[in-house]
Amino acid sequence: MFIQTETTPNPATLKFLPGQTVLDAGTADFPDPDSGQKSPLARRIFGIGGITGVFFGHDFVTVTKDDGTEWDHVKPAILGAIMEHFQSGEPVMEGEAQTQHAANHDEADSAIVGQITELLDTRVRPAVAQDGGDITFHGFERGIVYLQMKGACAGCPSSTMTLKMGIENLLRHYIPEVLEVRPVGL
User: What's this model's pTM, rounded to 2 decimal places?
Assistant: First the structure.
């Protein structure tokens, strides 16, 4: 098994491409070791030490380290943990797959929300996935779109610029009712 790695815009996060499917559908975000307990793969990676976050996409794993840890010290162990997991035959996730939260919006805004989610799914999410992350829609209220950055994009120095200059401008261009985009926390 050959696992490729890619840098991300977030210097604390690396993207690992194992050359096979990680998740069949959706994404899974583990911002701390406790949240990773339902995933044998996340548990292996968190067991390395110095790891603060793990994120799964369709065909990639992104790993975030703490400031005191150097990639040169943990990257070989992460590669080993990913390889060992896929060779073990264990599932990536135990039990039910992670479900998305229901987004908040008024029933009158359903058409606008449909347009927003369509643009996010077709234009934004593929680009964000290239950087080892994901973005989820959390609501639309009085012209404000609430989004959450995940994976490599959470805590990335350029995430605010991505939200404001990229996503906000895109949504405002296609949907005049959108006035602003704001990030939400966990």
Answer: 0.71
